[in-house]
Amino acid sequence: MSESRPFKGIFLCCVAVLLFASLDSLSKYLTPFHSAIVVIWARFTVTTVLLAGWLVPRAGWRVFHCNCPGLQVLRALGLLGAGLLFISATRYLPLGEATAVLFIAPLLVTLLSSHILGERAKPGQWLAVAAGFLGVLIIVRPGGGLLTPGMLLPLGAALCFTLYQLITRLIGTRDAVTTSNMISGAVGVVSMSVLVPFFWTDIPTPLHLAAMLTQGTIATVGHLLLTQAYRFTSPMILAPFSYLQILFAGLFSALFFDHIPDTGALIGMSVIAFSGLGSWLSLRQARKTMPI
Hints:
There is one protein chain. This protein is an all-alpha fold. The chain has one domain (6-288). Helices cover 76% and strands 0% of the residues. It is built from twelve helices and no strands. The longest helix is centred in the C-terminal third of the chain and has 27 residues, at 206-232. It is globular and about 45 Å long.
């Protein structure tokens, strides 16, 4: 049974998104030296080994038993595609801007839910979707320096992450969260293990190896903290705080990669963040007025 401790939940959520921004920074650091295939393989392998070491002794091998294997595989491929495309994007784009573009995924979920899940979006949510896309245009600024083929990578990552979220909703409670996480990890490890031999060009230095191990550990801890946050308060309360990841990514980009977003990029990032908050407020208001 979950207990209501909203401030503890918010704190854990903020720490989790800080870790996710740190994870993306490590990936950006590694991509000039190693293929994105190798980087994402290392992340999924470490994460899956750690989760298995934690869950299998407690739940046994039944943690892999699922009731909708086809959807689980599609969900895993959506998460894998999002990670692979986003890591590739950080090689060509500033971290803060790439993160902001990725965060149009919740808005895409709103856009597609009415067609795929039969969920009816409110006018405020449609307005938020339009504002989110406007934010992307402000960041890209047709004719500006970021309108490059590389910008397709975070957009593709957002589409893959949208697929992941929609399938997660379709699965619902038919499978346990632990089962979904283990299958996602296993599919990612197996898929990337097939490709890694073709992209492994250099033996990682001790520093790069440490970074690869650290990113997998950070990913595991971040997801566990976020899961714990949901025990203490509802996703509706936590949703706005996930947009802090855009802020953290911008800060890390300035600190570690010597890139400070220009005024246009800052405006676009803010528009995307506020559009997400607007969508959340519209959904919250709709639930308040929903008849019991």
